[in-house]
Amino acid sequence: MSTYDLCATAGEGTADGCCWDGAQGLCHTCAPDTAAKAVAAQRRGLNDQVSQQAYAHGQQTGQGYDVTTTRQLVCPQCRTETHGTPSCPGCGFRLAQPSQCTSCHAAVPDGAAFCPGCGTRR
């Protein structure tokens, strides 16, 4: 047998005690659980404080970054400067794309993912 409570303030009902504060005679929308709200506020405060500390750490770390030094080509995988090499010296990622197909040796246009002649993936 289910129970049905009607909130005097909201005018809406709740079934089986869901979202219902029997001591107050109100739904949780009208009478929120104060302890739950307090815990949620504590978590928001904790998250805000951690974010502020992380931001401050980033600012301190950035102070040592030399913005006047020119950077050469940088590997998209590990951010190591490659100085124009075909493969990254840090992680081995292949940076240069071949200008001809490795299968049929036809010319492959820049930016093409596949050979226009045989369809081999670049």
Number of helices: 1
The main sheet comes to: 2 strands, antiparallel
What general outline do the C-alpha atoms trace? elongated
C-alpha termini separation: 68 Å
In spatial order, strands of the major sheet run 1-2
What is the N-to-C succession of helices and strands? EEEEH
CA-based gyration radius: 31 Å
Secondary-structure-based class equals: alpha+beta
Helix % is 10-25%
- Spans of at least 5 consecutive residues with low confidence: none
Q: How many individual β-strands?
A: 4
Strand content: 5-15%
Average pLDDT for all residues: 80
Would you kindly provide a written description of the structure presented here, covering whatever features stand out?
- Helix content is 24%, strand content 8%.
- It has one helix at residues 34-62, and strands at residues 4-6, 13-15, 20-21, 26-27.
- Strand 3 and strand 4 (26-27) form a beta hairpin.
- It is elongated.
- The mean pLDDT is 80.
